[in-house]
């Protein structure tokens, strides 16, 4: 009687099938789910991960076409995340296990394509099932993935209607702060505006009407030119290579304009990169010193100024350590903030920031503003601004600094910006929200949420 050796038994087993060719588009969906998880679970900024040079390896390895797709999926998913999750919850008989967060992100990526993007439903479903099968943690949920997403495909219109009627489009913590600050009606209009991608605005050196005509745009009350939707790179447009204009949201262009006539004055931009406001100050005739503590950001600023044919003294320096030998006539402090006014272009912000960040950043802003007042001459002006919608980072900071003495507010004239008079508060401060600037035929409305005020150092 013959006995089988160990090797004989091994040869008798059915060989493990070799993996088949990977389906087109699978790697892009896997990258999208991975990056979505990093935003939601680890609060990692999306901008950094989507950097083509220093970003997440899963993103960097993709083709240009797949990068564009992944960016569209992530921006859309984060813009609509509470409602996407509400729709998925309606379809799941029981909640997913606590350890199935990766599956949750895969379902969100697929649902985003099915409900909001121009991608065939069957492709989104098929790739999501393939993605589940490719992940050992989620393989047992492949049938569930297929069933949930096929039903979503069939019922998406009704499910979306219900979600839109019952679920705010922003996370609960952030929507509650908006309502507390702006009231229910204005908060809802802000939330609705944040569902739309931001338009492209440019700041021109001169002749905004002429550039609006050349580029098919319109001139906004801020003096910026808003472009209509177009295909291709902004850098390919007329005037870019010649340095005639730069991309800058209309609201972001306002703080530098609050100084008034600064021709011949020495002005310091204390948190300058990427340089849009620095360019405005130079173009207005000021002698500008620009600070930034990041060498890479300062390099980018210098590159932008070089293209624009503008010159400034640039210093790599933390502004809190900056103590000039000669005081300046004016200073611009566009302070670090939660960036909640820029959610149209950075939809990850409500998920990477929270109330604790706002409190921490408000403390930093107050310290920086107090220091900014020490770098200007007595009687000199400081414009303090940031792109937060939260008064804890704006009005409350300035109120404490003013109450402490040593400076006074210089009210902004509401008539200085016809069409944006509502952006000037009773105290004469600037407060824009994404719900301002109504759309015009062929052009998106809205602008970033910004706060800015003018302070004069006491004599």
Tally the helices: 16
* Gyration radius over CA: 26 Å
Helix and strand element order: HHHHHHHHHHEHEEEEHEHEEHHEHEEE
The secondary structure category is alpha/beta
Our estimate of the beta-strand percent is 5-15%
Helix content: 40-55%
Instruction: Write down how many β-strands occur, each being a DSSP E stretch of 2 or more residues.
Output: 12
Summarize model confidence as the mean pLDDT: 93
CA-to-CA gap between the ends? 110 Å
State the major sheet: 8 strands, mixed
> What quaternary form is this?
single chain
Q: Segments where pLDDT lies below 50 for 5+ residues?
A: 1-18
The 3D shape can be described as elongated
Structure in a nutshell:
This protein has helices spanning 6-12, 26-42, 46-49, 57-60, 64-79, 81-91, 101-116, 121-134, 142-166, 172-193, 208-215, 276-283, 295-308, 349-352, 355-372, 395-403; strands at residues 201-204, 218-219, 225-226, 245-247, 266-269, 287-292, 313-316, 328-334, 376-386, 407-409, 430-432, 450-457. The chain is of the alpha/beta class and 459 residues long.
